Amino acid sequence: MGYLTDDNFTAEFYLTQVVSHLNVAPVARFVDEAWQRGLRHRPGLFGVFFYRSANPRTLEILSRFLPVPVNTLAAEFATGATPIDICARTIRAMLNVGVRHFYISNLPLLRASPTLTAILGRVGALD
Fold it and tell me: What are the tens digits of pLDDT across the range 59-83?
């Protein structure tokens, strides 16, 4: 937070690491502190990862690069949740704590547009 509020910080926005509905508390604390420190004029773009499956090997490799809630994510897939459901749950959870801007990583290249449309539709259906 000190970096973002430093007088020498001149960016018009900032990006975060990947966030998840499976661990909302740190994001809520960050958003609260950002508002308390007056960062309303500088939007943050929060990362959301589109997990395509609960393949243990894939998640283990992915865990080398970003925090992956492997066990809870696998449990969600085991209940029948789809990748679209899981991504939408994360976006909805972030909206609920005040996040308004997102970037989604790992959308399927050839189906990015319809996949994004389905995710956004599901977010709306979660109201």
Answer: 999 999 988 999 999 999 999 999 9
Domain at 112, CATH number: 3.20.20.220
DSSP 66: S
Closest by CA position to 24, among listed 94, 104, 102: 94
Is residue 82 in a domain?
yes
- Let me know if residue 38 belongs to a domain: yes
The band of 2, judged by pLDDT with boundaries at 50, 70 and 90, is: confident
Report the number of distinct structural domains present in the chain: 1
Structure tokens at 88: 């939408």
Burial of 71 (0-12, 13-18, 19+ CB in 10 A): exposed
What is the domain range of residue 75? 13-125
